[in-house]
Hints:
The protein is of the alpha/beta class. It is 30% helix and 26% strand.
Amino acid sequence: MDPIIKIDHVYYRYEKDIVLHDIDLTIPEGAFLAIVGPNGSGKSTLLKLLLGLLKLQNGNISLFGQDISKFKDWQQIGYVSQKANSFNTGFPATVFEVVASGLTKKIGMFKFFQKAHAEKVMSALASVGMTAFSNRNIGELSGGQQQRVFIARALVSDPRVLILDEPTVGVDAENVNSFYQMLNELNKKAGITLLLVTHDIGTISEKVSHVACLNKKLYFHGDINEFEQMRMEEMSKFYGHDVQLISHQHEHGGVLS
């Protein structure tokens, strides 16, 4: 698989604090990559660099084979943040309208919304299992349902890459596994490259293809089988403290804490 994102020798600092140190990371097209690491490990900074929200200080990033400084086609990259945890439940918009807002750049702010656009909105909702909620107010939904809607909003412009920052924040525990299963289907059936920041590597280990362990430096990057063979001593060194594997009710279970 060809690399869809390539990160070469990236450093980043806030004043005197280095938050990313010599990061080299190649993400092939079609991958489902989980980025794990403790709080303050540089995960959010890395995402902001990939999304063009922060300017590179040192190193290089290429997207779809193009240097990020020249990259313009940002519709190729969808982004879903931790919105469900802080969303204004009184916001007066339907699920359909929220997803349709993801087409603004493609069709223009004041252009006529055509039947084909409505079909794209419903198709995006179908891909996340939310067509039955299209006329509901977004504020009436649960946290997990809201996150599915935000993913549909990101998908409606047909991105090749979807970046998700802790997407299960606000999702109740019993629905986390079905949420990750939905992501797995987007990756496998729709062929979308997924880049996911998460603490819950145990729950998602059956779904992802690759894992990157980031704590200012990149301590590990490989496929899920290589990751699961890492010893606890290695993980403790990475996290900076002793870790334990908390088992879930599935084959690979475990959460690092």
